[in-house]
Every structure is written in structure tokens, then in C-alpha cells.
Amino acid sequence: xxxxxxxxxxxxxGLLACKYTLSKGYTPVVFESQGGAGGVWINxxxxxxxxxxxxxxxxxxxxxxxxxxxxxxxxxxxxxxxQSYARHFNLVRHIKFNSRVVGIEFEGAADExxxxxxxxxxxxxxxxxxxxxxxxxxxxQTLSTKVHLVxxxxxxxxxxxxVPNIPxxxxxxxxEVFQGNVIHSMDYSAMDFQTAAQFIKGKRTTIVGxxxxxxxxxxxxxxxxxxxxxxxxxxxxxxxxxxxxxPWGIPLAYLYFNRFSELLVxxxxxxFLLSLLxxxxxPVRWVFSRIVESxxxxxxxxxxxxxxxxxxxxxxxxxCLITIMPEGFYDSVEKGSIILNKLSTSxxxxxKEGILVDDENAVLETDQVILATGFKGDEKLKDMxxxxxxxxxxxxxxxxxxxxxxxxxxxxxxxxxxxxxxESFSNLFTSEMRCRWVMELLDGTFKxxxxxxxxxxxxxxxxxxxxxxxxxxxxxxxxxxxxxxxDQLCKDMEINPKRKQGFLAELFQPYAPLDYPxxx
Length: 520
Known about the structure:
Layout: E1 4-8, H1 12-23, E2 27-31, H2 75-88, E3 95-96, E4 99-107, H3 111-116, E5 132-139, E6 145-150, E7 152-155, E8 181-184, H4 185-190, H5 193-200, E9 205-208, H6 212-225, E10 231-235, H7 252-256, H8 259-263, H9 272-280, H10 282-300, H11 302-305, H12 313-318, H13 329-335, E11 338-342, E12 349-350, E13 354-357, E14 362-365, E15 368-371, H14 377-382, H15 388-395, E16 416-418, H16 427-442, H17 451-469, H18 482-492, H19 503-508
Parallel strand pairs: 1-2, 1-7, 2-3, 7-16, 8-15, 9-10, 9-15, 10-11
Antiparallel strand pairs: 4-5, 5-6, 12-13, 13-14
Helix pairs in contact: 1-16, 16-18
């Protein structure tokens, strides 16, 4: 009997899910709210570039074209590559564009019965004998709605779009009292390049936040206006932004993306010997971090600008907060076209003329404000569900990372997987591995453990994330343990996790997408 898989989102994870669903003989139906495939790469800033070397951001069976020479291609090259993948594997015919999912609702067991199950789905199987998902979809052009019934759902909605993280202000101290414009970086990226250029031209722009989007917008404003209308950047934490991927001539991958580097880290579910080894080798981890930090400080003159972070580079990479510093950024700071303001507290507010900082004793006059304050990815995930029980399940505790087994399956939500929420150094790489894993699960290659065992495993990963990511644990970052994580997926799929030739190569050579070619 035909099994229908509903895939929500036609970004990179959604396209991968569609491709691997087809490879197992299931029928995919992909719902995409935008008019094209590509996810976050459809709406970008003009200066946006790939944040990882392209050798790590590529499909295992679809290499970059030889015409792309750059190590970090720009947004148009990335989008063309992703959409070429969709065309090459004939995925577009399975996508319903301009189709926004309003909500998903499980039809089958009652909530009380679901919570009493000991095995996922009641019987440990990916497809229930009676369970179906109702996906309510709104056509964004006609505003009409339609309900689709599917046997399995894969949520590929990402975490960096749609639901902006807007700071909350006391009454009378928010954007409503400011005489200028206040927008989120999401609104800026939604503008076409000409409109965006006009928006910042000839205006004093203040950026709140020093994430990658904040850095890019600041550079665009500085390039457009120079010192006549300087761009001000408000931020609360200094970051280790990379000038390149070759600290002191050593490829970053040899420090952080091979098996030896992962021996330096305590791992979820590790045994006594691995734990002892991680403790003994922890000074090496410190040395690696110092190598990268000294390179960044030297290349970007961080001491000169008072921008040296208090935390380690290892914490930055363990939190998936690594960014590439836009070329010429600190030159613009030195010239005065970018002004850096570190907040003494995380609090700020608005007044008629601009922004109040430092307990409201200082007024920073500005013409407009762009909030580069990120997104609420967990809220976006939660809002997919109609059931309040599932809303609470998927969100989990606010004091823990999302409780997903293998970063894909919620133990108490049947016939559903989440792809692309947990972060890594290359989200394309891990999304492809997860899609392969989910399809082997659907195909019966392996069975999931009991609900309690899956919850215990998720707790171990939560402990790991809190240990190394600290306050950023909700980002569910696995970057520092990407190989260890893929090993677990491979073992489940009955694939040899050792992908190199020889002991030394296995220990020291970096792992990348092409090490995991599809088995068929």
C-alpha cells in the first residue's frame, strides 16, 4: 500500500528529505510557503556568502560545479547550486509552492493513550495501523485552505526564518516612541537589493546585535554611507569571528573536524576509557583554541578595537556561533563608518531621538534601527502543532535542549521527524545524514529503543550541550562532535562508520560530506 510522506519546507533539508523519500519508494508531498525552493537562500542580503568552505557544504552525490572557484561562494551561487540539485533529481514536481502549513494534527490514539505508550507510536513502528497526520495548508495567493492526509511527517522548517526574536520593552520605552523606522533583519533580507540599498542610503543606521546578519548589514551601510552617516552597532558579547579557515596556515578542519579532535571532548554515552582520555587530553583542546584565537586576534587586531572575547573559541564552535568576518569590517571601524558600542547590560530602550543605553543615561541618536536579534526557532516548531500536548512535548523544558532522539525523533510524537533544527558546522551535511537515517527507519532497517531509553539518550546530549555550549544549549549544536554523532547514525543504518583508509588517516584526516556517499 502506498505510503505518503508530508514534508514541510523546501529548503535544503526539505529537498534532501524529498530525494531520500523517493529513493525508498514512498510518495513525498512537499509544502513550501515561498514561490521557489531554497529556503533561507531565497531572501538574503546582497553581501551574504556561505559561512563554511564549500567542500563541507555540498551534497554527497552532487558536487559543486567546476565553474564555482570560490571557497565560500556568494548567495546567488549557493541558491543556484541548491536549485540545480532539485532539478537534477526531479524534485520540483513534488513541491507545492505558495503553500503555507497552518497546522498539523495527529489522527489516531487519544492524548492519554499516547502518553501511556512505552514504545514510539505504541508499537515501535514508523507507520501506525490507524494513525495519520492532517496537514492544513493555506494557499498564500488565493488564501484558500486544503487538508492533506499523510502517513508520516518530516518537519524541515529550519530555525532562522519566519518568527523573529523581538526584544520586549516596558510601556513607553519601545519602538512606538521612536520617530524613525524599526525593522528586523528578516524584513531587510526580504527587500530586493535595490530597495535595501535605498533603505540604508543617507541614513544613520543602528544595528542591534553582532551576529552574521548584523555584521553583513553594518558593512552594507558603511559601504553605502561612509563616515557621513556612520552605522552604529550595539552588542553585548564579543565574538570570535574568523577572518579565514587557515589559522596560522593550519586548516581549521584538522583542529576540529577529525576523530582526534573529538577525543578531546567528553561525549554523550561515552565509556570510562573515552572519558579518561578526554580528561587527559583537555590541555590539547585548550592549545587548539589558543591557536585559533591568537590567529584571529592578530589578523583582525581585536586588542586594538577592544573586541577580544572573554570566552574560548571552543565554546563558540560548540555553540554553532562561528561566523566569517566581512572583509574590511575593521577598516570601516577605524575610518569611523562603523561605530561599535558594547552594552554594559543587555538592556536598552527607545526614545524619540534614538536609543537609550547604560541605564538610560546616554542617548544614541539615529535615523533607523535594524534588529539583528535572531529568531525563535523553537516557537516556530511549536506553532506547527494543533495539539497542546504535542506543543508542550516538542518545546520541552525551557531549561533543556529540545528532547530529540538522534536530533530527529521526539519519543512521544509518533510518525514524525524533525530535520534541520539541531545545528552543526555544516547543516547541509548533517541534514543529509539525518534524512538517510529517517528513511532507513521507515524502511525497517532498524528499530527505535523504548521511549524511556530515547529520553535518557536525549538527556545525555542535553548534559553535553550545557557543558560546552553553556547558555547557548538551546541551539542544540553538535559541531564539536559531528563525527561521533554520524557514527551513531551509521551504526543504526548498519553502515561502517569508519570511512578512511588506514589508522592514521582515520584519526587525523577531516571528515566531510563526500566521505558518506549514498549506498545505492
